Amino acid sequence: MDEFFPQQSVSKTWVVLTVLDMVDQGKLRLDQKVRITRDDLAVFHQPIRDQVIANGSIEVSILNLLEQAIRASDNTANDSLLRTVGGPQAVTTFIARKNLGAIRFGPGERALQSGIAGLDWKQEYSIGQRFYAARDAVPLVTRKAALDRYLNDPIDGASPQAIVRALAKLAKGELLSASSTRLMLDIMSRTSSGPNRLKAGVPAGWSFLHKTGTGQVLPPVSTGYNDIGIMTAPDGTRYAVAVMMGSTTASIPQRMTFMQFVSRSVASYHQN
């Protein structure tokens, strides 16, 4: 089934894979520096922002940005990588060339998140709470219409089935070189977001690597509440798993409990 669900930060996976593919081709280097200025800052979660504001601009290695984009889900790090590879079209081309199927890639965090909120992006929104203030000023009917359009046809949408197939290809070394595959899986194994999602249901003795995604909230609806990853049993058997909640009114504890049920069920299936 190829129904498209909002990916939100799950889509950072495809940006990083595109970067590593270009490293494999010799077009980029992991130690290559990327300059980030205040004009490059994004929105929502971006721990790197404080460094940029304090210094006016910073230079960060591609390897460091890969870590921050996946492990910390930093939006500015992700958009900086996206700019480095040539923009959204480069990611879309990678997805098509690797035959990953029903996976879309959106316009980058700034345009994506402002559009979902019914706003046109202004760079001033990247500072402090200005995005939230601007979003709060959008008439409710306008904001709801924008969110509904997004949910009905998510520009960053993907089929969970396509995602698990892509994760399987990654794990089997079919997307990247051996060294880049090891690096990607290692970074994903140290993801700090979503500790109480799928990860909390993975039994002791298993390993788990993943990438989360979390969309905007317009009460009572939360959107794009996701976790995708690879569970590895003690005997080495691997399972690609994707839980994607396009929109939900369930509480956060209920969502976490459901995700933990899924990962526990995978382990139970394996043991039986």
Automatic annotation (TrEMBL):
Residues 2-245 form the Beta-lactamase class A catalytic domain. It catalyses: a beta-lactam + H2O = a substituted beta-amino acid. This is beta-lactamase. It comes from the Bacteria. Its EC number is 3.5.2.6. The lineage of its organism: Bacteria, Pseudomonadati, Pseudomonadota, Alphaproteobacteria, Sphingomonadales. It comes from Sphingorhabdus rigui. The keyword Acetylation does not apply. It is an enzyme of class 3 (hydrolase). Belongs to the class-A beta-lactamase family. Gene3D superfamilies: DD-peptidase/beta-lactamase superfamily (3.40.710.10). GO terms for molecular function: beta-lactamase activity.
